[in-house]
C-alpha cells in the first residue's frame, strides 16, 4: 500500500464520523509521520506496515474523540454493515422513558450525585491542606508531558514530593522507598489520589479518563529511538489510567512491556475495555504504586 492509498483509506474512514477539520488534522499528522520516517531512510512500505490498517486507526481515533459510538460506526462502514444497522434503528425507533416518576427518579439520582461529589471535594480539600501544611511548595504540581499527535501539555498532580531542583526532576524516576516522597505523598500515591487533578486535563481535552499514560519529553526522545513502535501511543489521547498501569506496568518497571500493553489497548479498543480498566483502577488500584 502506498502513502497516498493509506491516507485515502484513512480519510474515508474518518469522514464517516468526524468533522472536516479533525479529519484533515489526522490525515496531515500521519502524512507528516510517514514523510519524516522515510526521510530517515526507512522504506515507505515498512512505515505503513508499522502503522497498521487505516480502518483500525480510524476506529481508535473516532472512539476516543467522542463517546465510543463513533468507533463502532467506523467499523460498520468498513465491513459494510453500517446501512443495515441504520435501517434497524429506523424501524425500531427510540424507546423513550414512560410517563410518571421519571423526572422524580432523575432528580433523586442527581441529588445523590451532587452529594457524592461534595464529599469527594471536601476530602480532596483536606488532602490539599495537609500537603500545604507538611512541606514547602505548591499544592498542585505541574509537569510537561507529551500528548496526542506529539503535542506537549501541562499535566497536573497533587504534589507528593519535596521540592526538587529542575535538573533532579528531569533525570530521576520515582523508585520504591524514594526519600523525596513526603509522608502524605506515600498515601496519595498508593491510593492514586495524586492523579485526581488530572480531571482538569480531561475537561481541557489534553487527556482522557483511559489511555496510555503520557511521558515527559526527554524520555519520549529516548524511548522512540530504543523501542519499536513507541510513537504509536501518541495516536490517541493519553489517559489518567491505562491498561498497562492496572496490569502493574508503571513507574520503575519495564518500559518495553508497558508499550506492549499500550499497543494492545490501542489496537483492541472497545468501550467495554475502557469500563473494565476504570473498574480495575477503582477496585484494585495500580500495582507498583509508590
Q: Can you offer a commentary on this structure?
A:
- By secondary structure, this protein is mainly α.
- The chain is built from 14 helices and 4 strands.
- It has helices spanning 3-14, 20-39, 44-51, 54-65, 69-79, 82-92, 102-134, 166-171, 183-190, 198-204, 217-226, 243-246, 255-267, 271-284, and strands at 140-146, 152-158, 208-210, 239-241.
- The strands form 2 sheets. Strands 1-2 form a two-stranded antiparallel sheet. Strands 3-4 form a two-stranded parallel ribbon.
- Strand 1 (140-146) and strand 2 form a beta hairpin.
- The longest helix is centred in the middle third of the chain and has 33 residues, at 102-134.
- The N and C termini lie far apart (46 Å).
- The model is unreliable at 67-101 (pLDDT under 50).
Nutshell version of this structure?
By secondary structure, the protein is mainly α. The chain contains 14 helices and four strands. 58% of the residues lie in helices and 7% in strands.
Largest sheet: 2 strands, antiparallel
* SSE class: mainly alpha
Strand order of the biggest β-sheet: 1-2
Mean pLDDT: 80
Portion in helices: 55-70%
SS summary, helix count: 14
Strand fraction equals 5-15%
Number of strands: 4
The general outline is globular
Q: Give start-end ranges of low-pLDDT stretches.
A: 67-101
- Determine the N-to-C terminus distance: 46 Å
SSE series: HHHHHHHEEHHHEHEHHH
Amino acid at each position: 500500500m502506498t502513502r497516498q492509498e493509506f491516507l485515502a483509506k484513512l480519510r474515508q474512514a474518518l469522514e464517516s464520523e468526524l468533522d472536516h477539520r479533525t479529519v484533515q488534522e489526522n490525515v496531515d499528522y500521519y502524512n507528516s509521520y510517514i514523510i519524516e520516517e522515510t526521510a530517515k531512510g526507512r522504506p515507505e512500505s515498512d512505515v505503513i506496515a508499522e502503522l497498521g490498517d487505516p480502518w483500525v486507526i480510524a476506529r481508535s481515533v473516532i472512539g476516543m474523540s467522542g463517546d465510543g459510538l463513533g468507533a463502532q460506526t467506523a467499523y460498520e462502514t468498513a465491513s459494510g454493515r453500517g446501512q443495515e444497522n441504520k435501517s434497524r434503528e429506523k424501524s425500531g425507533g427510540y424507546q423513550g422513558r414512560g410517563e410518571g416518576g421519571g423526572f422524580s427518579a432523575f432528580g433523586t439520582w442527581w441529588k445523590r450525585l451532587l452529594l457524592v461529589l461534595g464529599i469527594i471535594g471536601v476530602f480532596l480539600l483536606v488532602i490539599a491542606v495537609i500537603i500545604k501544611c507538611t512541606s514547602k511548595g505548591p499544592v498542585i504540581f505541574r509537569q510537561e508531558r507529551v500528548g496526542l499527535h506529539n503535542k506537549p501539555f501541562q499535566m497536573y498532580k497533587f504534589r507528593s514530593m519535596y521540592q526538587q531542583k529542575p535538573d533532579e526532576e528531569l533525570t530521576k524516576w520515582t523508585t520504591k522507598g524514594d526519600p523525596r516522597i513526603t509522608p502524605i505523598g506515600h498515601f496519595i500515591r498508593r491510593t492514586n489520589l495524586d492523579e485526581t487533578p488530572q480531571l482538569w486535563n480531561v475537561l481541557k481535552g489534553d487527556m482522557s479518563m483511559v489511555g496510555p499514560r503520557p511521558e515527559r519529553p526527554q524520555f519520549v526522545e529516548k524511548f522512540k529511538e530504543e523501542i519499536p513502535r513507541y510513537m504509536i501511543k501518541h495516536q490517541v489521547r493519553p489517559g489518567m489510567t491505562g491498561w498497562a498501569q492496572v496490569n502493574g506496568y508503571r513507574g520503575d518497571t519495564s518500559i518495553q512491556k508497558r508499550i506492549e500493553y499500550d499497543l494492545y489497548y490501542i489496537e483492541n479498543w472497545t468501550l467495554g475495555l475502557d469500563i473494565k480498566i476504570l473498574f480495575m483502577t477503582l477496585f484494585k488500584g495500580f500495582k507498583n504504586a509508590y
